[in-house]
């Protein structure tokens, strides 16, 4: 019987996949990344811990647990090399990548290739829980205004340009001005930073989209209840996220919360 290995980072996505496996009676094992994964998600769940720079150890753990399929779930804040303490297998990956190792997408794809070499099959989170995928269209009672739509169109261009450089997946745009772009800090920190940059007048938008070269099995743009709260507190009017290529956690609850706040969520098809 196939057994799924969940590589768990931060946030709520690992919990969603654990719940999906439990609901569907699917055999699974969680490898939690030290300093990233939430311990609360692992109560009464088969799991082990591993540091981020230990690819060799992770492979050995999965093999000992008879795992044959893997899914990456949750955010990962990558430490510097001294903190990472890479094992020999990880050092080999860095050596092959060279300067490309500084890009998150390049590094993740290299890690995936290393895992596939060992016979593991990698799947996307949406293949475990299809309801996580963001549908196309306006999902809330409130729709984007003409000004919001202009900001969204500009934001898509900005984030796609960032993505080609393997930098980030999000930007905040207000009145045609980019207030901030996502880099290593993540979306929550981007929104916190933009609170003090807000201009007078109509609020802006958060735009999240895939990198053009992105493997959709890994690191899809993700929003949820917390993203909505942070965006609303930053004075934004809504969120636009790429439909079919992003994850919307707790969809019903997120849409309900947005409706109560007079906030919009739109799933757009990227040009």
Structure description:
The chain is 37% helix and 20% strand. By secondary structure, it is of the alpha/beta class. The protein has two domains: 125 residues, Rossmann fold, CATH 3.40.50; 136 residues, Cytidine Deaminase, domain 2, CATH 3.40.140. The chain starts with a strand and ends with a strand.
Keywords for this entry:
271 residues; Rossmann fold; globular; Cytidine Deaminase, domain 2
Describe the largest sheet: 6 strands, mixed
Using the CA coordinates, give the radius of gyration: 19 Å
Low-confidence stretches: 99-103
Number of helices: 10
Which percent bin holds the helix content? 25-40%
CATH architectural group of the largest domain: 3-Layer(aba) Sandwich
CATH class of the largest domain: Alpha Beta
The CATH topology label of the largest domain is Cytidine Deaminase, domain 2
Structure in a nutshell:
The chain contains ten helices and 13 strands. With 271 residues, the chain is of the alpha/beta class. The protein has a six-stranded mixed β-sheet, with helices on both faces.
Detail the topology: elements first, then pairings.
Blueprint: E1 4-8, H1 13-23, E2 28-33, E3 47-50, H2 55-64, E4 69-73, H3 81-84, H4 88-97, H5 104-117, E5 121-123, H6 125-128, E6 137-138, H7 146-164, E7 170-174, E8 177-181, H8 187-194, E9 205-208, E10 222-223, H9 225-233, E11 238-242, E12 247-248, H10 251-261, E13 264-268
């Amino acid at each position: 019987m196939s057994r799924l290995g969940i590589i768990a980072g931060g946030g709520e996505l690992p919990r969603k996949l654990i719940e999906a496996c439990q609901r569907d009676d699917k055999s699974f094992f969680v490898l939690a990344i030290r300093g990233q994964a939430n311990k609360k998600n692992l109560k009464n769940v088969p799991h082990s811990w591993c540091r981020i720079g230990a690819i060799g150890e992770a492979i050995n753990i999965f093999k000992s647990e008879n795992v044959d399929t893997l899914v990456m779930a949750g955010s990962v804040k990558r430490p510097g090399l001294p903190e990472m303490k890479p094992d020999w297998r990880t050092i080999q990956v860095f050596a092959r990548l060279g300067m490309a190792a500084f890009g998150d997408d390049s590094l993740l794809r290299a890690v995936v290739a290393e895992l596939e070499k060992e016979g593991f099959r990698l799947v996307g989170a949406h293949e475990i829980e299809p309801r996580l995928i963001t549908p196309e269209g306006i999902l809330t009672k409130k729709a984007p205004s003409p000004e919001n739509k202009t900001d969204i169109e500009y934001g898509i261009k900005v984030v796609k340009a960032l993505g080609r450089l393997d930098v980030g997946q999000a930007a905040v745009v207000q009145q045609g001005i980019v207030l901030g772009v996502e880099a290593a800090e993540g979306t929550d920190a981007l929104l916190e930073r933009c609170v003090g940059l807000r201009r007078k007048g109509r609020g802006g938008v958060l735009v999240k989209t895939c990198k053009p070269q992105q493997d959709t099995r890994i690191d899809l743009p993700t929003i949820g209840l917390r993203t909505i709260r942070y965006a609303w507190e930053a004075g934004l009017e809504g969120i636009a996220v790429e439909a079919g290529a992003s994850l919307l956690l707790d969809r019903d609850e997120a849409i309900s919360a947005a409706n109560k706040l007079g906030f919009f969520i739109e799933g757009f098809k990227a040009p």
